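To close the section, here is one more complete example, presented without commentary so you can practise reading it yourself. The ligand is glutathione.
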Amino acid sequence: MTRKVHGVGASPFVRKVRVALAEKGLDYELEPVFPFGVSADFKKISPLGKIPVLQEDDYYLPDSSAILDYLEVAYPSPALFPKNARERGRAVFLEEYADGGIAAKGTGAIFFQRIVGPRFMGQPTDEAVVQKAIGEEMPVLQDYLEGLLTGPNGFLAGDSFSIADIAVTSQFVNLAHAQYRVDAARWPKLAAYLDRMFARPSFAKLIEEERAMFGG
Ligand SMILES: N[C@@H](CCC(=O)N[C@@H](CS)C(=O)NCC(=O)O)C(=O)O
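Output:
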């Protein structure tokens, strides 16, 4: 079977899919698609013009959350969604907390202003936007995550690695590429948790590959 992920490694949403595939031991090729100004052909497989798209032979599925859901049903082991209904509900919410919340208020400001704008779009960094995200948005987002983490080996939802950990960590990888680090003095559990997640082989391999691109 031909399995491809259409997108670029710098996208936190593409990374979600690549980490899920790695955790499930599934091989794929990365088909480079830069997300701005996509072709009419690409819009046929991604009607919103966004990356990632998963391809398996002639089956094309856009949207990282849809893809993770598909992968879980098609390749159930190891599970990346908690079995318990309430923990599963929480995991799905945390995926949205990352994809809709951290992405919009944190990554969209800091990673975009420091990396995407200057390097790929010829736009200078707007330092006011970066400082607002660092000083006002990220602390609130991080306080909530800090409150969810209990033990030293904990995960965000349930007692094993899940889509919640994939989605949240993926945003913080982009933030790290943009030189943003969680202050371990103020958010000790979150900082330790992210160190553990970044060291997990599925993330570590991609982070190393991406650092060559960003030097972060
Ligand atoms: N909900 C989508 C979001 C994907 C997304 O926003 N991707 C960005 C790149 S990081 C993109 O393709 N942006 C281009 C655009 O919005 O036109 C998912 O989870 O896959």
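Once you have examined the tokens, check your reading against these statements. Strands lie at 3-6, 29-31, 53-56, 59-62. The mean pLDDT is 96.
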